DNA sequence: CTAATTTATTTACCTAGCTAAATAAATTAT
DNA sequence: ATAATTTATTTAGCTAGGTAAATAAATTAG
């Protein structure tokens, strides 16, 4: 395998693992965090809006949101279109989000702090040169 | 979440999905291919050598190699140290590997063909600037 | 030489993605 | 207005990673 792919996939796995480690203190997994963050930024969303935004398949989001609901982070309510479920952050989530965001910012700083803004931009540009 | 992480994780998932799609014609999954490739390059290896090389945890390799054995791609034999199992490619695997490698090379060319060698090198350098 | 420790693998179980197919509500075509 | 199609979500089951703990063989300490 091309070393570029190997390196990219490894780093991706490494980042996810580190992120999970960091989020342990808040009793969250990385995929749960991405959904909470999504709702934090966009406000209430349907499941479809979430999975289209995060670019994953619907069943992954169904499962993760169901888990977040049993843990008390979100509520699911029927929308005016009764096919869709609207997901909103719970009071508990809104209360805890600022502290979690702080943790995440520190994590990101530690992870890519040694790259300049130009290098980060360059990295994104090169990523986009790959197919897809 | 920092867009750099988002982009990197997305691309990583996209590559894996494309690779799986490409490997369907050989009835293989990407993780199975990485193990076969590993054995192709290094010759017979113990499970520990494989998971240390691929930088994943042991149980993932135990499972994947067991599956590869039932599918006839590899054999597991006891080593002189009876704790370890040595994994070798089957005759079927050796016969089929060249065609699979060809498929993979075409896939990689399609995936990163629009990047120059310098850009690829630069990308790797930037990846390594991230922590880990 | 026996006891304690280390090492290699496995088992059980978790998150996290995927596809395919089922269900139910809404929309479109006739 | 009914039938056919589309859309939103869910269910079932797969690969693929992770951790924690069990087992068995090898090694080290006493």
TrEMBL record, chains A, B:
It comes from Lysinibacillus contaminans. Keywords: DNA-binding, Transcription, Transcription regulation. It comes from the Bacteria. Coiled coil: none annotated. This is MarR family transcriptional regulator. PANTHER family: TRANSCRIPTIONAL REGULATOR, MARR, TRANSCRIPTIONAL REPRESSOR OF EMRAB OPERON. InterPro entries: HTH_MarR-typ (IPR000835), WH-like_DNA-bd_sf (IPR036388), WH_DNA-bd_sf (IPR036390). It holds the Pfam family MarR. Residues 1-132 form the HTH marR-type domain.
């Amino acid at each position: 395998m091309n070393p570029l792919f190997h390196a990219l996939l490894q780093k991706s796995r490494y980042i996810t693992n580190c992120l999970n480690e960091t989020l342990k203190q808040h009793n969250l997994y990385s995929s749960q965090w991405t959904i909470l963050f999504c709702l934090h930024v966009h406000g209430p969303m349907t499941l479809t809006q979430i999975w289209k935004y995060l670019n994953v398949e619907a069943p992954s989001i169904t499962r993760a949101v169901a888990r977040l609901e049993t843990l008390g982070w979100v509520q699911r309510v029927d929308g005016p279109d009764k096919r869709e479920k609207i997901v909103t952050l719970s009071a508990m989530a809104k209360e805890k989000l600022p502290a979690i965001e702080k943790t995440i910012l520190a994590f990101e700083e530690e992870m890519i702090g040694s790259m300049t803004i130009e290098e980060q931009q360059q990295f994104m540009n090169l990523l986009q040169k790959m197919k897809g």
